[in-house]
Amino acid sequence: MISHRDRNAQRISALDERAEALHLKRDMGIADARAMHPSIDVVEADPEADRRLLEGLADWCDRYTPLVALDGADGLFLDVTGCTHLFGGERAMLDDILSRFFHQGFDVRAGLAATPGAAWAAARFCGDRIVVSGEEEALLAPLPLAALRIEPSTRTSLESVGLRTAGAVMAAPRAPLARRFGALLLLRLDQALGRLDEAVSPRLPVAPLSVERHLAEPVTLTEDIERLVGMLAATLKTDLERRGEGARTLALLLFRVDGAVSRIALGTSRPMREPMLIQKLFHERLAALEQDIDAGYGFDLVRLSVLASATFDMQQADLAGEVTDDGADIALFADRIRARLGDGAVLRPVAVESHLPERAVATIPFTDAPCRTTPPKKPDRLQAPKTIFPPERPIRLFRSPEPIDVPATEMPEGPPLNFRWRRALYRVKRAEGPERIAAEWWREAPSDEAASTRDYFRIEDADGRRYWLYRQGLYGGASQVPPRWFLHGVFA
Known about the structure:
The protein is α+β, with helices and mostly antiparallel strands. It contains 14 helices and 19 strands. InterPro entries: DNA/RNA_pol_sf, DUF6504, Rev_trsase/Diguanyl_cyclase, SulA_CellDiv_inhibitor, UmuC.
């Protein structure tokens, strides 16, 4: 038996067939059950483990349909509309599901109907039954009120007035039922009978394109999986070409014969549909996850899905039939590195609208960087060119400025004569500046504006090394705190 705590009391939450044969029931107190049968075994419930198990079973059910939803703590909804013919019909599909669950060690009850409500009732109260469209009322009529998926309090109120079956509720006038028991009762009834639509929300997004292959003999080797990826990618290429798109996010699903499912996803920096390139990316990903993927007795179903796609820009070929794309090799290299080491392995700097050095550049994942889709606009020949000399910036900018000690300066607003950084003394030979950068008043409101003002200097020491340092604060400002010096980057 499985127990759970309810209002400072341990009660039965689930029990097996042997416990049911002892006339034990759910919600019975554990103390009463032990008084009746002292030798019974009681295990504390673990809702988190049960949830993980149910989600694992939902992953496995993706082999039948991508529209799989969780139903409470012990059920699954499968929308198999348009999928049954792939398994030989409704009865063959239902038998296959029950047989596979049985061999995995689960006691499963299933029902198949045109509406989720009727299927739920058939599974919970009839065991294994297929309800033909139009027979929902005949199915529900003899069943108890719990088959309508209504609240326990509503069931108790209905039973108190003599309505003990779903058929009795269907035969009663609707208006009095709605006034006394609420509109949810009639909503559940109409959904089960097909008068109102009931949507099944899948737990995972449905891929717009998917191809799969059922294997007569399970595969266990990584080389065989990669070969299957290439074959599935070739099939996907035809569909992508017809849509004029390329894949940006791909997912490989490996269904193991014992019910476990491995999901392997990767992204591309640009739309891709070439099978050989897709196979290379999954080769890197599988190599990185080789220790984490347990083939067990093998995978009998392999599916390749396109989770996200984008417009595929065709490239003009030269007379030899070759396409020249300078960024293709870099994009493929970055994608392969990311597939093996993760999305954070390759980053791209992008400019940010800020004149503060530490805010002017941000690093983002390679796939999120904007790509130029049109060539840059050529300058007008009649217009005089504008010569703009941007301020010189160091080759290496520190993530955060490092404080330095400046013993003396030529003048209060001038560069230092020498400075100490990381316990080493550097003598200044040449200096350029200052370049004043004030605080961004539209982003922050410092207590003392002068304290946030920076005067940057380009410094060269006696050994020819160049640094970028600044003084924060002004002499003679309103703040009593003296200015401080920081090293922000190095030129060479």
